Amino acid sequence: MSKPIGVRIDSRQEKTWLRFKEFVEEKYGKKHTVLGNELVKALQLYLDLYERVSNSKKEPETQLVKERAGDIELKPLREISYDLLNTLIACRGYLEHIENEIKDVPDSTKDKIDRLKQSLFKAQKLIQERIDSIK
Description:
Layout: H1 14-28, H2 35-56, E1 63-68, E2 71-76, H3 77-101, H4 107-133
Helix pairs in contact: 3-4
């Protein structure tokens, strides 16, 4: 049996509440009977995230909430950072491969490829520094 519960929302947070209600209606095609369930799921997620962060003494920014197949999981930022790092390294490798395969490349194209490789290297360095800072 459900129980009505009332809360007050500051006018500054009203936009968030309206977005949440719209999300529920888009997901289910209705709000009646499902809004409360979705609100409880959101609160459980928030409490689980807070508990994990508090227990591991990590800052909230070191966790990322990700939705997968309808279930919500917490994925450590370090793991995501490694995925991103591997993607950047692969992109640099593809660029080098393309550069080696193409003959008679105009100088302007070579310059663009070099700038792109430099940008990827800088991004790789930043991600590596972030991984090193997350303990």
